[in-house]
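Summary of Year 1 activities. Much of the first year was spent building the evaluation harness for sequence design. The harness presents a backbone, in tokenized form, and records the residue chosen at every position. We chose the following record to illustrate the format because it has been used consistently in internal testing since the harness was completed.
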């Protein structure tokens, strides 16, 4: 007899505080009533070549530590390779296996939540269905939950963690996404070392009754951003290379990641828990804006002074280029670095005042730059490039500090830049 599929829930993406009733249990004998239960969701799309080994490896381990107290929920998005059917055929052997075939909805994050909605456990979890997440790490995640964590995350970025054979580009993209996340949503992304992880366990109570609304791949962001997670544990793991099937990640997931961050940011439930302290965050932004100014300066200097372009005199070109760089930096800083303060001091008058102060401080900084460079080079005999770097660092601090104190002076109670 083939086990029936679990119907996929519809409606809002909310996990209830009370676990789904055991009455929906197909194999009552496999569940010990009253026991806390682990419900591990395995989202799949075209994982036909992996699913059997996956279920086998997980069951093998869990049977030893949690006999009769866990369930595996495969949530398959109607895979053309019939992953759902293959999983369904395994159910008679693995009595704790349940299979959902989703035909109305798609996407990794929603698949995970739909799985949790039918879950009977007090502890909810997710693991990739392609064996890239080592099953043995699950035992350490369980141990962390046992010791009182609300959330236990398998992380590539703590001790014993890592990636197996990623090339430089992939590492840079992955870290870049994380840094971007830190800038946009420090209070969420900064809480764990691997916010991209799709391998974690969470207490049902920490996400219960929250309306979840994820976009794309990164379900952990949603859990951190909308849940009430207090204690977090991280367990290192090495992200394995895929042996069978292929990844579903395309450029689209990167765009969705950004959308997801913005959406979480503007959500009212988003708690203001900055990971970087406000001054550090501001300084970081200020530095980035400064770099953008260097690009503007360089580009204009080229257009104005290069013999193959306009060919104007160097000094005149440099003055114009610098001024445009300063304007560029002002606009970004006013909107972003100090945006929270600027929005409390609206009106063109005040804006112009801020700009003039900023402009003046930056020009003074330029003079200071030349003086420091000369002093270090001529008086102390320091190598001119090292001297220049030191001068730039000093002037960046000068610019930041004075602008903070003068141009974007806080008048009211401070708040996180939004
Ligand atoms: N149901 C469903 N629907 N499952 C999906 C979908 C979907 O639309 N898209 C992907 N999956 C399943 C895959 O079948 C696989 O089991 C898992 O989700 C992860 O998808 P992959 O395409 O293999 O992703 P990956 O290996 O690049 O991505 C992983 O990157 C992280 C590390 O940064 C993420 O999925 C994370 O889980 C992982 O930790
Ligand atoms: Mn994968």
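For this record, the design step produced the sequence shown next.
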């Amino acid at each position: 007899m083939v086990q029936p599929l679990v119907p996929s829930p519809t409606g809002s993406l909310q996990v209830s505080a009370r676990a789904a009733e055991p009455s929906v249990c197909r194999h009552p004998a496999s569940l010990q009533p009253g026991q806390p239960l682990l419900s591990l969701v395995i989202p799949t799309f075209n994982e036909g070549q992996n699913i059997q080994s996956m279920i086998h490896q997980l069951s093998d381990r869990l049977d030893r530590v949690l006999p009769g107290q866990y369930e595996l929920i495969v949530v398959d998005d109607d895979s053309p390779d019939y992953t759902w059917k293959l999983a369904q055929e395994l159910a008679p052997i693995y009595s704790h296996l349940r299979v959902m075939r989703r035909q109305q909805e798609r996407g990794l994050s929603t698949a995970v939540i739909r799985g949790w909605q039918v879950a009977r456990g007090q502890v909810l979890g997710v693991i990739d269905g392609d064996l890239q997440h080592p099953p043995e790490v699950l035992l350490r995640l369980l141990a962390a939950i046992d010791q009182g964590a609300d959330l236990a995350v398998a992380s590539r970025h703590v001790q014993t963690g890592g990636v197996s054979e990623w090339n430089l580009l992939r590492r840079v993209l992955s870290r870049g996404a994380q840094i971007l996340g830190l800038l946009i949503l420090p209070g969420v992304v900064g809480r764990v070392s691997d916010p991209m992880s799709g391998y974690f366990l969470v207490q049902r109570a920490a996400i219960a009754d929250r309306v979840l609304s994820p976009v794309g791949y990164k379900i952990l962001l949603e859990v951190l951003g909308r849940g009430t997670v207090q204690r977090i544990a991280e367990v290192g793991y090495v992200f394995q290379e895929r042996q069978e099937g292929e990844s579903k990640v395309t450029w689209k997931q990167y765009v969705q990641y950004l959308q997801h961050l913005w959406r979480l940011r503007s959500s009212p439930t988003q708690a203001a828990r900055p990971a970087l302290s406000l001054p550090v965050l501001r300084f970081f932004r200020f530095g980035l804006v400064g770099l953008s100014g260097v690009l503007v300066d360089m580009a204009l200097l080229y257009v104005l002074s290069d013999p193959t372009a306009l060919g104007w005199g160097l000094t005149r070109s440099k003055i114009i280029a610098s001024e445009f760089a300063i304007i560029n930096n002002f606009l970004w800083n006013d909107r972003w670095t100090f945006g929270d303060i600027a929005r409390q001091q609206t009106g063109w008058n005040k804006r112009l005042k801020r700009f003039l102060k900023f402009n003046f401080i930056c020009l003074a900084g330029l003079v200071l730059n030349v003086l420091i460079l000369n002093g270090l080079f001529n008086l102390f005999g320091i190598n001119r490039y090292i001297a220049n770097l030191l001068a730039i660092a000093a002037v960046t601090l000068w610019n930041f500090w004075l602008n903070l104190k003068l141009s974007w002076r806080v008048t009211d109670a401070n708040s996180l830049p939004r």
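The longest helix spans residues 348-379. Quantitative recovery figures across the full test set are reported in Table 2.
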